[in-house]
Design goal:
alpha+beta, Jelly Rolls, 2 domains, 8 strands, about 20% strand
Length: about 325
């Protein structure tokens, strides 16, 4: 039987598709985009009086979520079934939930309970604080006169009184320009300074008295009265309890022969939030945000790591 001759037709060969490896620049594009986004947010905080607080909110959210991710990743180093895993996750979530409320209510305060207008020193107004008011906050708003220079500053003084308790409030207006054409930017925008009262708490009547108003500020001075459901002392007690829980988790992680950054990451979140709630004002948003960052990094991060190392050395028991 004759062997069939091979066909003279050529079998079509598939063209081989060659993929070029990504260039070095393409590898770094995500990092460059992240850096550009971060730069835009920082520039917005420092340059825009209208959108700065929203950029600050985004920066805080990104920072807190990033630190929470660092803390959460400690679970990946723990063996399956380790009882420390659910405890670590619970403490991380508790820290985030405890800081979200104070940070949000500081950057985006609730609706005012009362707004009074005071035109000259000696003017007073009666206000009534209602509801859950563990903290009473005054915000003084005003605008510079059109002929005031570009580097204008103005100190004002108020007194908050309830019964026999009086508290003096001193604040500083600094020029803040609105976005728009050059002609509009010559007139200062309305700015506000936030003052957390230290001696007057809770619901009840209160008197606001204008003690000093510089001539460079156009009357009337608007005083906004707000109330918050938690105080600095309440936050201090809550955050102290959370800090103890964070240190406990850090000790347990380190005793499993794992290099731990848990206390440092959670300490930054707690310290920066606590500082921001007590010192933030819209008029000085960039400097307050920078100060909160430094307090968080140095006080919460470095300080948290030092406390964690001390706790690892003195804590009794074994994991």
């Amino acid at each position: 039987m004759a062997t069939p001759e091979p066909s003279s037709k050529r079998t079509p060969t598939k063209s081989k598709v060659e993929f070029e490896p990504p260039s070095e620049l393409a590898k770094y594009l995500p990092y460059l985009a992240a850096a550009a986004g971060f730069g835009v947010l920082v520039l917005t905080v420092t340059r825009s009086a209208r959108y700065g607080v929203y950029a600050a909110t985004a920066l805080l959210a990104i920072a807190f979520l990033g630190l929470a991710y660092v803390a959460w990743e400690h679970t990946a180093t723990l063996p399956d079934g380790d009882r420390l895993r659910p405890m670590l996750r619970a403490v991380t979530v508790a820290v985030l939930l405890a800081t979200v409320g104070p940070a949000a209510i500081t950057l985006h305060p609730p609706a005012p309970q009362s707004v009074v207008r005071l035109s000259r020193p000696g003017d007073r107004a009666e206000v009534n604080v209602r509801g859950a008011a563990a903290t009473v906050v005054l915000e003084a708003e005003g605008a510079f006169a059109p002929d005031v220079g570009a580097e204008a500053q103005a100190h004002y003084e108020l007194t908050a009184a309830r019964g026999g308790t009086e508290e003096r409030v001193r604040g500083l207006f600094q020029r803040a320009s609105e976005e728009g054409p050059a002609e509009a930017r010559r007139v200062s925008a309305t700015v506000a300074s936030r003052h957390v009262l230290g001696t007057i708490h809770g619901a009840g009547p209160m008197t606001v008295i204008l003690d000093r108003l510089p001539e460079s500020v156009q009357p009337p001075l608007r005083v906004v009265v707000r109330a918050e459901p938690f105080s600095q002392k309440m936050l201090a007690a809550l955050f102290a309890l959370l800090a103890v829980a964070v240190l406990w988790v850090d000790v347990k992680v380190s005793r499993r022969k794992i290099e731990s950054a848990y206390a440092a990451s959670m300490g930054v979140v707690l310290a920066s939030t606590f500082y921001l709630h007590g010192h933030f004002t819209r008029a000085s948003l960039p400097s307050d945000l920078l100060a909160a960052t430094l307090v968080g990094v140095l006080g919460g991060g470095v300080g948290g790591e030092i406390l964690a190392r001390i706790a690892r050395g003195v804590a009794p028991g074994k994991s």
